[in-house]
Amino acid sequence: MTQTHVSTLLSTEQIAARVRELGAQITKDYEGRRLVLVSVLKGSFIFTADLCRAIDTHQVRIEFLGVRSYGEGTSTSGVVQITQDLSKPIEGEDVLIVEDIVDTGLTIAHLLELFKTRHPASIKVCSLLHKPARTKIEVPIDYLGFTIEDRFVVGYGLDWAERYRNLPFIGVVEAK
Ligand code: IMP
Ligand code: MG
102 in ligand 1 pocket by Cβ < 6 Å? Predict the structure, then answer.
């Protein structure tokens, strides 16, 4: 097996500071409203856990959506399969989709189409990362953590073949 090393792209401290800012902005924007955070599994589980604690209101419901994009390794095929649906309807609710990364945009585009058929009061997108170089379909990102270059990143929930999700920072895998 080849030796690999992960170099830091975004440190734990950088991420934490940005998550606090996003949480404050969301708190302000949704003042006096109820909010349903939809965490897109598995990649956004850590981001969601931190983000929801940076949102200062009692009116938040957390939902999880299991999604699989067919294709192994580091590329997406664009076919999105729901592996676990929401536990409750979102009709009439203010929904915020929480994603780890918008890469080609295909996953978010698909989820926005799907959720619109369920008639929420509003629907917005919050993504920790965005890789604009790989855009195949433009999607609105209402809250964005960081724009990154076209590198495959891991950690803070993001995986490479299911590994590295538990890294407390975001990094790039390099062969030694
Ligand atoms: P999409 O191409 O925008 O549909 O993104 C699909 C999914 O691919 C994302 O939600 C991530 O789970 C995954 N993904 C895309 N780029 C990366 C990356 O650099 N590292 C880890 N996962 C990624
Ligand atoms: Mg994802």
Answer: yes
172 located within any domain: no
Which atom of ligand 1 is found nearest the CA of 100? 10
User: Total domain count for the chain?
Assistant: 1
Ligand 1 geometric centre to CA of 9 (Å): 16
pLDDT at 165: 97
Residue 103 is a catalytic residue: yes
Nearest residue by C-alpha to atom 22 in ligand 1: 158
Instruction: Tell me what pLDDT residue 74 has.
Output: 55
Cα(66)–Cα(41) distance, integer angstroms: 5
Taking a 5 Å cut-off on Cβ, the residues next to ion ligand 2 are 43, 100
Cα(43) to centroid(ligand 1), Å: 8
Residue 124 domain boundaries: 13-153
Residue 40: strand, helix, or coil: strand
Nearest-angstrom CA–CA distance, 50 and 115: 24
Is residue 123 situated within a structural domain?
yes
Please report whether residue 160 resides in a domain.
Answer: no
pLDDT of residue 73: 54
Per-residue CA distances from 150 to 7, 64, 78, 147 (Å): 15, 27, 18, 10
pLDDT in tens, 66-122: 998 765 555 556 678 899 999 999 999 999 999 999 999 999 999 999 999 999 999
pTM of the model: 0.94
Is residue 67 a part of any domain in this protein? Answer: yes
